[in-house]
């Protein structure tokens, strides 16, 4: 009986299971190949030739070339390009094995041993490219090159390269060479070493050394700057530690600087950066004259040891979760002036730091926030800190919901209340000046405050300056109701309390005709209550122009509002004011000022819900105006948006008030402001304040209106400010003509050399993009009456002009500028000019500071790749070495 043909004679099993039980021959998987022209087979020699745009795919290996030959008997694939009629080689082999890719002149690859020989090879390793005359690849995917060149320039013929006879490449890890030298523009230079080591981590970060730069400083001697180590702990954490060391000058130790920076990130949770700088240097005076301090005779002494802390932590918002965030910039006030090369840090007069945690309790109207904040003034050295600042709030709760009633559209359903609690503990290193705001003489004379250094020796006065307040606030909403169909009436009531653990006590000393201030410890409660109501509406006026005109309509929106506010008189409350200080009214014999007992607040400067004291029974009004027009949209060609809105006046507002409880009923005066935009480029903001009362010889308002004087007038301009901001960007998106030449291909060795389409394309476009941001500020203050014989004070106290922007001369070159001028002091503010030139794989950047303490320049030419960031040439003259 014949055997079943589906079973092999050798007993290897069913023919449909070939390849499942084991490998058959040297070819492990299917070889897929194709060619655009033809495929020629030599059956006897087991050779296949592929012509024109040929490609092969074998496992994770792929090969593209003009001609490919497959020798199945030797398991070798050979690929090469072909010359066209002009002699230019087309279809050079492009070999890819996993993540590695090679551009070559000729490739021979053994698919069994996974070894190969590549001539005229180009392969990318990380940020760099490896060129070699001959490359051999082993089964470990390691590359051995002869007459190799390593560069970060992505051209087929690079602008610069590191030339070495022998080279070994471990993909994704490193490139190691023998003796090498640097060539720039095919010109060998004597720069080189006995061996070369270049890490190529690819997409992953790698640890490594950071090489310092060498230079000389006028006050610190020779230095090595910004040298250290970067440690990539993992893909989420990186640590950078660098330092500077100075040889010293004038027989003094030059000092050092250490910078530590930690960057961290947790996906979908948070990311942040923490940096700490510490600098130590000899104490030397420095003449300071710049935009921050315009007095050229001011001498600021250096602090020998300074530090600076930066911390930014940004969370990813998640519903129902807490949010912890931090933005900290603090340290010694002198640090940035002595050490920082950052212009913004150097010019910033104050830094704010905040650390907070906020959370909305799920399924609850309660939310809370815990914050620690600090304000640092670098000019005065003042540090004000709030630690902690706790806030707990209850969102608005409606009365009918609390009573379990259902909504029926009744008026009382609008009644609601909200509650907020805040607790603050404020510290300051500045002792308060021994003076009173009312000008009453103090026992021992009036002294100014002083700034205390932050140290353990000053811990006692720092704690004594602590101000603790616990504040409660209730906001009661009484609803909003229509009146006469077009008016909206909204009443409101608020109540607040503040709790303190100390208060001020005053004692009048008759013999000295002065007041002594004492601080008493204990629990103190202060409350404040107010009520009010508002009536407001909107009035519209429209002018419609029919037809095909450019302007279709003009609309004016007028929003008048009438507000009433009331708060009782707290001046007779002994918990707020010390009413038994003066035996009678005290009159200053020089000014004639009358001092009253109600001038002595027990909580002066404590913050919180401290009432103003005097009764407020005031009616105020405000009028807001907005004018806009509808014009035909000339840019619309589809008809979807034939019209667009253009604002003529964003806001023209006026406000004033009348206080029945004040002897000067219209003390508030008249306030006006104008906001508009011209041609969507020029922003104009004008604000002013007017007074209706006459003034005495000391410049104080008296209870006589201006229209009651000999030369009557309605109001007097007290102060005004003007702010003009102009922004322009000429780099509009240019449309490419229909007959424009095609763009050149990317300069990538894997794609071959680009064909020059138009060698003068960069020179025929005379449009030079530029940006300009200009701001002008002016402030006017009425000088008031001037005693005879004294000079008239300056009315315009501030007039300045600031300019900044950039000029793009070509696609490769940019020039930036920042400057300003103060017309009052007649001085140029901090000025900076910078330029940048892109040299493909190199770049030139520079800064020039022509004026002030930081005048100087800095020019650097170097490789663009971060891998070769130490391959650079720097020349500078800064405030450190001028």
TrEMBL record:
Query: What is the species listed in this Swiss-Prot or TrEMBL entry?
Result: Hymenobacter koreensis
Q: Which Pfam families match?
A: LptD_2
Ranges annotated as biased composition (Low complexity): 737-750
Please state every residue range assigned to the domain named LPS-assembly protein LptD central: 175-693
Specify the taxonomic lineage. Bacteria, Pseudomonadati, Bacteroidota, Cytophagia, Cytophagales
Q: Where is this region: Disordered?
A: 729-750
Q: This protein is called what?
A: LPS assembly protein LptD
Q: Which domain of life is it from?
A: Bacteria
Record's InterPro entries?
LptD (IPR050218), LptD_2 (IPR045659)
């Amino acid at each position: 009986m014949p055997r079943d043909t589906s079973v092999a004679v050798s007993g290897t099993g069913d023919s449909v299971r070939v390849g499942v039980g084991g490998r058959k021959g040297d070819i492990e998987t299917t070889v897929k190949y194709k060619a655009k022209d033809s495929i020629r087979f030599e059956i006897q020699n087991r050779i296949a030739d592929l012509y024109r745009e040929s490609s092969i795919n074998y496992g994770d290996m792929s090969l593209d070339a003009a001609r490919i030959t497959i020798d199945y008997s030797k398991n070798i694939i050979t690929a090469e390009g072909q010359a066209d009629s002009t002699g230019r080689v087309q279809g050079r082999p492009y070999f890819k094995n996993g993540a590695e890719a090679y551009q070559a002149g000729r490739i021979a690859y053994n698919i069994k041993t996974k070894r190969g020989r590549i001539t005229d090879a180009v392969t990318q390793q990380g940020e760099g490219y490896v060129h070699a005359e001959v490359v051999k690849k082993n089964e470990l995917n390691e590359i051995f090159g002869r007459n190799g060149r390593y560069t970060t320039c992505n051209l087929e013929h690079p602008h610069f390269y590191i030339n070495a006879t022998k080279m070994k490449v471990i993909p994704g890890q490193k490139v190691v060479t023998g003796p090498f030298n640097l060539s720039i523009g095919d010109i060998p230079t004597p720069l080189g070493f006995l061996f070369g080591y270049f890490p190529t981590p690819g997409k992953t970060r790698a640890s490594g050394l950071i090489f310092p730069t060498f230079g000389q400083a006028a006050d610190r001697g020779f230095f090595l700057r910004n040298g250290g180590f970067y440690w990539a702990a993992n893909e989420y954490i990186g640590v950078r530690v660098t330092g500077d060391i100075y040889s010293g000058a004038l027989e003094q130790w030059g000092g050092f600087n250490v910078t530590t920076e930690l960057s961290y990130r947790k996906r979908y949770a948070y990311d942040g950066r923490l940096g700490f700088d510490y600098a130590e240097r000899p104490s030397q005076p420095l003449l300071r004259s710049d935009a921050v301090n315009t007095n050229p005779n001011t001498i600021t002494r250096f602090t020998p040891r300074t530090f600076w802390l930066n911390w930014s932590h940004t969370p990813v918002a998640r519903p129902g979760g807490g949010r912890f965030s931090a933005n900290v910039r603090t340290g010694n006030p002198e640090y940035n002036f002595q050490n920082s090369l950052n212009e913004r840090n150097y010019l910033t007069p104050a830094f704010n730091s905040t650390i907070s945690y906020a959370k909305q309790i799920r399924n609850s109207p309660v939310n809370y926030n815990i914050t620690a904040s600090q304000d640092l003034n670098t000019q005065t050295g003042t540090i004000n800190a709030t630690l902690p600042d706790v806030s707990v709030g209850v969102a608005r709760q409606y009365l009918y919901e609390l009573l379990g009633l259902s909504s029926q559209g009744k008026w009382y359903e609008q009644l609601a209340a909200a509650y907020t609690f805040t607790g603050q503990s404020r510290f300051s290193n500045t002792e308060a000046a021994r003076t009173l705001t009312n000008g009453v003489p103090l026992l021992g004379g009036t002294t100014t405050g002083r700034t205390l250094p932050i140290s353990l020796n000053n811990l006692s006065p720092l704690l004594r300056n602590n101000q603790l307040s616990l504040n409660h606030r209730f906001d009661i909403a009484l609803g909003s109701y229509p009146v006469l169909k077009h008016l909206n009436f909204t009443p409101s009531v608020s109540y607040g309390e503040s709790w303190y653990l100390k208060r001020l006590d005053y004692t009048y000393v008759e013999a000295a005709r002065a007041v002594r201030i004492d601080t008493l410890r204990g629990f103190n409660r202060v409350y404040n209550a107010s009520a009010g109501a508002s009536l407001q509406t909107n009035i519209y006026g429209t002018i419609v122009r029919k037809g095909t005109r450019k302007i279709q309509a003009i609309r004016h929106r007028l929003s008048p509002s009438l507000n009433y506010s009331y708060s009782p008189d707290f001046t007779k409350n002994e918990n707020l004011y010390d009413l038994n200080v003066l035996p009678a009214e005290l009159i200053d014999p020089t000014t004639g000022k009358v001092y009253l007992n109600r001038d002595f607040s027990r909580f002066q400067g404590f913050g919180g819900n401290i009432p103003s004291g005097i009764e407020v029974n005031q009616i105020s009004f405000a009028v807001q105006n907005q004018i806009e027009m509808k014009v035909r949209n000339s840019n619309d060609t589809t008809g979807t948006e034939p019209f667009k809105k253009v604002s003529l006046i964003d806001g023209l507002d006026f406000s004033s008030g009348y206080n029945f409880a004040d002897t000067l009923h219209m003390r508030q005066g008249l306030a006006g402001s104008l906001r508009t935009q011209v041609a969507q480029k020029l922003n104009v903001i004008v604000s002013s304040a007017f007074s209706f009362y006459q003034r005495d010889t000391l410049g104080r308002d008296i209870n006589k209106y201006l229209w009651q004087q000999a030369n009557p007038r309605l109001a007097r301009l007290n102060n005004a400010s003007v702010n003009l901001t102009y922004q322009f960007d000429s780099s509009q998106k240019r449309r490419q003509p229909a007959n424009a030449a095609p763009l050149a291909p990317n300069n990538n060795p894997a794609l071959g050399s680009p064909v020059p389409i138009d060698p003068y394309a960069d020179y025929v476009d005379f449009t030079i993009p530029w940006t300009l941001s200009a701001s002008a500020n002016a402030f006017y203050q009425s000088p008031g009456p001037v005693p005879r014989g004294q000079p008239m004070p300056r009315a315009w106290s501030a007039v300045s002009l600031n300019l900044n922007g950039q000029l793009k001369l070509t696609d490769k070159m940019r020039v930036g500028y920042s400057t300003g001028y103060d017309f009052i002091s007649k001085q140029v503010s901090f000025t900076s000019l910078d330029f940048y030139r892109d040299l493909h794989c190199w770049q030139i950047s520079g800064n020039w500071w022509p004026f002030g303490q930081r005048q100087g320049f800095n020019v650097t030419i170097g490789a663009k790749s971060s891998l070769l960031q130490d391959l650079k040439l720097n020349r500078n003259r800064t405030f450190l070495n001028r």
